[in-house]
Amino acid sequence: MAEHEWMKQARALVGKEYGRVYAWDRVNEPMIRQWCELMGVAVPHDAEGQVLAPEAMLQVWCMEGPVANNYPPGSTTDNPYEVLKLMEAQGFASVVAVNSELSFDRAVREGERLYYTTRLDSVGDEKTTALGTGFFVTLIMSYFAEQDGGDEKVGQLLFRVFKFRPANPVKPAASQGDAPSGPPKIKRSAPGISDDTRFFWEGAREGRLLVQRCKGCGTLRHPPGPVCPSCHSFEWDTLQASGRGTVYSFVVMHYPEVPPFDHPNPIALIELEEGTRLIAQLVGVKPSEVQIGQAVQVEFNSFNDGELVLPQFRPLAA
């Protein structure tokens, strides 16, 4: 299929509305309390004392849970990302410049049942960047609360992504008979390293998991920073952690698929046995088998031809 033909098909989808995706549970105080506890904020109430859900929690209510694409009965089976799949089939499989904007019409109240619908808002003109050529795609998810007198919009999520075909400069052949080189191998992004974090990455290269420790009060902190949040001391050293811990929380990234990561991609918040927590990728486990409280052990793996060493965590046998 010629490019202009498939782009006509893609642009024909602009404006398409995809059906409802319902929340598994009504807005309820236990989930609000747990969310607020993790975020370190108080449970909000209205003037009459009724429990409200924090606005930033809106997207949480309609998520499918730990099992991918497991939505409540009555939810649409249409794929709102079909335009992205269409682009991927034409070689525009890479992703960059993902952003989302969550806006709110009002706070949702305990007992309300929510759902959202999705609309393909736009497919931009072809753009060429240093990374490659592609298109900006914008989707809008509108959230509603069911009401007897007519459903009420409570918020909106704008999701925008740049889908592109990577640039593939051809390297000069050593001789006329050499075969042309393939596409460049995509590397993992290197972390931003500052004076506050350099010790962590240098430790990783040496196979050591180092945690910043306040010299004033002994508090461990991660991510590293210049000042202790407990006693405000600027003096610190490091503690070499054992690397043992448990899965405190986790997410499984299904989409968008970003090279060079394998997908689905399990990412966990690890609680180290020393007491602090850090975020790392899980390896050696199927995403469906990750569990809260699962015992894990750090391992240090090299990427980008040895240029990058990352601490990753592997579940321990029961």
TrEMBL record:
Record region (Disordered): 170-194
One Pfam assignment: zf-ChsH2
Residues annotated as domain ChsH2 C-terminal OB-fold: 240-300
Keywords: DNA-binding
InterPro entries from the UniProt entry: ChsH2_C, ChsH2_Znr, NA-bd_OB-fold, Thioester_dehydratase-like
Domain ChsH2 rubredoxin-like zinc ribbon intervals: 201-236
GO molecular function annotation: DNA binding
PANTHER family per the UniProt record, alphabetical: BLR3430 PROTEIN
Protein name: DNA-binding protein
Annotated organism of origin: Sphaerotilus microaerophilus
